[in-house]
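job 3f2a | input accepted
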Amino acid sequence: MSDAPLRVAVLGTTSSGKSTLAAALAEHYQTLWVPEYLREFVDTEERVPVAEDQFHIAATQRDREDAAAPRAHKYLFCDTAPLMTLVYGRHYFGGFDQQLAALAASHTQDYAFTLVTAPDIPWVEQGLHRESEEVSVIIDRMLLDELAARGIPYLLVSGDPAERLSQVERHLR
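job 3f2a | predicted structure (173 res):
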């Protein structure tokens, strides 16, 4: 039996509570979570990403998951996944690059569970991030359509942080 943790992808739009949920789950299960690299990229580069940045962002996210996995216990909570970067690429750049598509396809099955955070919490502006509350609705629909098209089962989590944690606990049991 493998000692590798089960990877849990936490997907959703900007300001939907992904990071809050991933951190709470890691604390609850006494394990690690991998923060969203996109946030660091925007802060470090002091700009929003362009199409040519998408593969780098998704690949760095995956590299950080791989680096954290040996230190995680039972679960590794991943605040986003290459599939989410692919969805954003389709929206903002009218498509995606083949390298990003291959990365998303090759790692989709690596996640034992996929959680989607509902955009049902108060919107919070996030600095240089360009997404608006209106775009969030579009991205949410695109994500759910993409998951359905790929046949990826997911748990839609909603409500306040305690309700979300409880929903995931029941699901992981």
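job 3f2a | The mean pLDDT is 92.
job 3f2a | closed
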